[in-house]
């Protein structure tokens, strides 16, 4: 018998593949309820998850605000509440900053940033009414540190990091938590053509930087160090903890990269300390 007092209702975007599918499997295996969103063919996700009785699949595109609001209302109608929102839907753009066209950059932001905001705005009113809830936004190792060839995509994840930090402060008095999860490189379909956009514009002067990254990512596909099933279990633990962190980097590669960045940042601060503090007004005491 399930303990209905601890059974949680999850709302996961982009549930049909990659992290979304792995987390969805783990949610149902843990005895929780799941609302999984897909852009089309809901019957496919239902079949993938064994037509589970605790599963509801809704069709929505995160960039379509009307669809998102309807999906949130449908989730409430089916399960009565939403305890955990996982903003997972998104895609990568591999390009030098100069190489990305205006249309390619805008679309990446439309899905990764504005789509996340659309879903968050649709779900939070229900969580505020409940006086409880947990928003989990999926960022990336590229949202903690810049990578050659990933500047545009990484910037969308830097935005998610900042948005979540602010949300955590705004929502805490309302009994709602916010966490941003930054996975490293995991063996999902992220580097497949269906999930990763490579800009059509390639500038020869970047062959030794962005070009090398394109080649490296081709060879790295399905050889990434992270295990998606273990990531999914980390999400289950995160969703069921009483005091979740604001930041949760996942993967030893993410942790190493972040520590390298902060160490380099500290060195720069030390070298430029006098310039940094020297810009204050004379009447400001350090």
UniProtKB/TrEMBL annotation:
The keyword Transmembrane helix does not apply. Pfam families: adh_short (PF00106). Keywords: Oxidoreductase. It comes from the Bacteria. CDD domains: 17beta-HSD-like_SDR_c. GO terms for molecular function: oxidoreductase activity. Belongs to the short-chain dehydrogenases/reductases (SDR) family. This is SDR family NAD(P)-dependent oxidoreductase. It comes from Chitinophaga pinensis. The lineage of its organism: Bacteria, Pseudomonadati, Bacteroidota, Chitinophagia, Chitinophagales.
């Amino acid at each position: 018998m399930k303990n209905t007092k601890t059974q949680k209702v999850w709302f996961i975007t982009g549930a049909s593949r990659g992290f979304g599918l792995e987390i969805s499997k783990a949610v149902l295996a843990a005895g929780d309820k799941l609302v999984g969103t897909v852009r089309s063919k809901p019957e496919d996700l239902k079949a993938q998850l064994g037509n589970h009785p605790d599963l509801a699949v809704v069709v929505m595109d995160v960039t379509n605000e009307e669809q998102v609001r309807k999906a949130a209302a449908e989730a409430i109608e089916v399960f009565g509440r939403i305890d955990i929102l996982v903003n997972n839907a998104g895609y990568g753009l591999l390009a030098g900053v100069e190489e990305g066209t205006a249309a390619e950059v805008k679309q990446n932001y439309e899905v990764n940033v504005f789509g996340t905001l659309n879903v968050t705005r649709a779900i939070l009113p229900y969580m505020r009414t409940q006086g409880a809830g947990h928003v989990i936004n999926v960022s990336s190792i590229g949202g903690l540190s810049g990578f050659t060839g990933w500047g545009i995509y990484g910037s969308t994840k830097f935005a998610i990091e900042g948005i979540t930090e602010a949300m955590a402060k705004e929502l805490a008095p309302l009994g709602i938590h916010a966490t941003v999860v930054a996975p490293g490189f995991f063996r999902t379909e992220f580097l497949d053509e269906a999930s990763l956009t490579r800009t059509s514009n390639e500038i020869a002067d970047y062959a030794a930087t962005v070009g090398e990254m394109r080649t490296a990512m081709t060879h790295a596909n399905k050889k990434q160090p992270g295990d998606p099933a273990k990531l999914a279990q980390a999400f289950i633990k995160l969703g069921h903890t009483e005091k979740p962190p604001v930041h949760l980097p996942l993967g030893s590669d993410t942790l190493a990269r972040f520590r390298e960045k902060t160490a380099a940042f500290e060195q720069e601060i030390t070298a430029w300390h006098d310039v940094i503090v020297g810009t204050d007004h004379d009447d400001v005491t350090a």
